[in-house]
Amino acid sequence: MTLRTARGLAVAYLALFLLAVIWPGALVASRIRPFVLGLPFAFFWYAAWIFFSLPVLYLLDRVERRHRDGGEG
């Protein structure tokens, strides 16, 4: 994967993340029930988006590091 593609995908995910945790995405999760893993749904919604941003940022770091080390032109 090229550096430009990785950055573009990361920016797209983070833009989606931003829309999901503020309006209008927060309207989907603005309820207490059902409970998911013992958490109110609204709290789970935010925690899930944060949790799934970790692999995105990790993969972006791997691509950036490979590019910086001269592995891919």
Sequence-ordered SSE layout with sheet pairings:
Elements: H1 3-21, H2 25-28, E1 35-36, E2 39-40, H3 41-68
Antiparallel strand pairs: 1-2
Helix pairs in contact: 1-3
What does this structure look like?
This protein has 73 residues and is mainly alpha-helical. It has one domain. The protein is built from three helices and two strands; from the N terminus they run ααββα. The chain has helices at residues 3-21, 25-28, 41-68; strands spanning 35-36, 39-40. A two-stranded antiparallel sheet has the order 1-2. Strand 1 and strand 2 (39-40) form a beta hairpin. Helix 1 (3-21) runs antiparallel to helix 3 (41-68). It is elongated, with a radius of gyration of 16 Å. The termini are close together.
Continuous helix count: 3
Write down the overall geometry: elongated
**Helix proportion range:** 55-70%
Numbering strands along the chain, what is their spatial order in the largest sheet?
1-2
Uncertain regions spanning at least 5 consecutive residues: none
SSE sequence, one letter per element: HHEEH
Rg calc:
16 Å
Average residue pLDDT: 91
Largest β-sheet summary: 2 strands, antiparallel
Work out the count of structural domains: 1
Structural class comes to mainly alpha
Alpha-carbon distance between the two ends: 10 Å
The number of E-state strands comes to 2
Strand content: 5-15%
